[in-house]
Each structure stands twice: as C-alpha cells, then as structure tokens.
Design brief:
The chain is of the alpha+beta class. The chain has helices at residues 38-45, 82-96, 173-181, 219-232, 273-277; strands at residues 12-19, 22-28, 55-60, 66-72, 77-78, 100-105, 108-116, 119-123, 152-155, 159-164, 191-199, 202-209, 213-215, 238-243, 246-253, 256-262, 264-271. It folds into 2 domains: 12-124 and 264-277, Diaminopimelate Epimerase, Chain A, domain 1 (Roll), CATH 3.10.310.10; 152-254, Diaminopimelate Epimerase, Chain A, domain 1, CATH 3.10.310. The protein has a 17-stranded mixed β-sheet that branches.
Length: 280
C-alpha cells in the first residue's frame, strides 16, 4: 500500500491510460513509496492545473502479480475500477511476458487475461446482491428499490444504482446522477447508470460515477448493468454494452462477471517536485 501524507521533493513518474475514454493516471509503487495525500490526488485530477483523470490507480506489491488501489477524482477511495484494472493488466502482461495475471484489490482477487485482437478481459468477481453487501441503508428488495423509476441495486466492490429507461438521450444525466449519488438509501454514495435495452442482449448505457461525475465509460458500472438486466429478465447473461466512449462485452458466468474491451496506454510523464510540494 502507498504511504499517505508523506512530503517528498522527488519527481513522480506516472502513466496516462484510458479504457473507452474512462481515463486514469497510474503510478507504480512497487519499488518506491508514493506521497499521495488527498489534496495531491485532487490536484492531479484537475484537468486544467493538473493532469486530469476519472480515477487514479496505484500499483503495489501484493500476494499475486500486483495489488491495485484506486482513488476517485475527489480523493475518495474505490475498491474496484474495471477499466483501470484492464489497462494495468495489459501493461503488466506485456512487461511480464504473460497472457494471464492474478491481481489483488480491495474488492478481492481478480483474474485478468489477454483475449487477443488487442482486447483485455478481467473477472470482476461475483456481484453483491444482498442489501447489506452493496450496501444499502436497510433491508429491501435490491431488484426494485423504493425510488422513482424502481432502479436495481448491485455491488461490484462499489455500489451501483441502475435505472432502465426507454431512451437514455432524453435524461439530463448531470442533474440526475448528482441527485441520486447521495440518495439516503446508499450510505456510501453510489454510481448511477441509465440503461436502455436496444436489442437482444444489447444495451446502451450512460454513467455517473460517485466522486467523479459523468464519465465516458465505467467497467464496474457496465458489469452492474449487465447483472441488473439479467436479473430483470431483460437480457441473457452475456451482453454488449454501448457507452459514450465505446463498447464493452460483459458475461456473467458461474465464476464471476467477465468484462472485455480495448485499452490504451496514452503517455508516460513525470510530476515535478514543485507540483507535488505545492500540496504538502
């Protein structure tokens, strides 16, 4: 785990990656301690005065090939980030010369693999369907929440609230997502998805991520939406999901929810000592 609140005058290397426009700053803490205060995380996230990201991911040593820790743009933590996991898995597989990885996260152990044709898959584990695992504030039917629109609640290491609607394009996601992220039924806040079934096993989905806002894609949200659609009987357990940033394939199998899609390693850079120390 990275050490928090440590002042450092050393420059900090980072990588910029994205999965379908869901973008990340990734730092490698396997050989050095990383000085990550909450203020510094928010500073890096700023798209005008920092680098900009939806999530920041830290690679550290773990019981498997690596351990991944995720932070949202507001500095809060997230146990899971599917697209960042796929991006980092692609990077590590190339570095290690392997086509399979065992990764650990606060969500649990995850398996990743090279699926060929430039695609990377990750098993995000079994969904959390019980109210106290997601978690919700009290016992209720997670398949139909007592919220206008009767959304589905799902846990994928982080909480999700999925609304099935006739047309995702007519909803003002900025206000809709912000209003529901802090709904009192979700004590840890929630990611919010609006989803439209557009064909057999085909879904159009848009997402508001807690601690971030509107994002072009979200891996864990895609998994949660696939699970919610299958539970509702709207689709089968293998679906194609079209997001603002591109398309993911999601399969809810006996051993977990597998997500497959492209990744991009955009650039390598270095945060200067001056920038880091401005948040000390």
């Amino acid at each position: 785990m990275p050490r928090m609140n440590q002042r450092s005058s050393s420059p900090l290397p980072f990588m910029k990656m994205h999965g379908l426009g869901n973008d990340f700053v990734v730092v490698d803490a396997r050989t050095r301690e990383i000085p990550l205060s909450q203020a510094l995380i928010r500073g890096i996230a700023h798209r005008h005065t920092g680098i900009g990201f939806d999530q920041l991911a830290v690679i550290s040593k773990g019981t498997g090939d690596a351990h991944l820790t995720f932070y949202n743009a507001d500095g809060s933590t997230s146990a899971a980030c599917g697209n960042a996991t796929r991006c980092i898995a692609r990077y590590l597989m190339a570095a290690l010369g392997t086509k399979k990885l065992h990764l650990t996260t606060d969500r649990g152990d995850l398996e990743a693999r090279d699926s060929g044709n430039g695609l990377t898959s990750v098993n995000m584990g079994q969904p959390q369907l019980a109210w106290d695992e997601i978690p919700l504030s009290h016992e209720m039917d997670t398949l139909s929440l007592p919220i206008d629109g009767a959304p589905v609640a799902t846990g994928m290491g982080n909480p999700h609230c999925t609304f099935f609607v006739p047309d995702v394009n007519v909803i003002d996601l900025a206000s809709f997502g912000a209003a529901h992220e802090h709904h009192p039924l979700y004590p840890q806040r929630t990611n919010v998805q609006i989803a439209q079934v557009t064909g057999p096993n085909h879904i159009r989905m848009r997402v508001w991520e807690r601690g971030v806002g509107i994002t072009l894609a979200s891996g864990s949200s895609s998994c949660a939406t696939a699970v919610a659609a299958a539970r509702r009987g709207l689709t089968g357990r293998e679906v194609t999901i079209d997001l603002d940033g591109g398309t993911l394939s999601v399969a809810w199998r006996d051993n977990g929810v597998w997500m497959t899609g492209p990744t991009m390693h955009v650039a390598d850079g270095t945060l200067t000592a001056q920038f880091i120390e401005s948040f000390a």
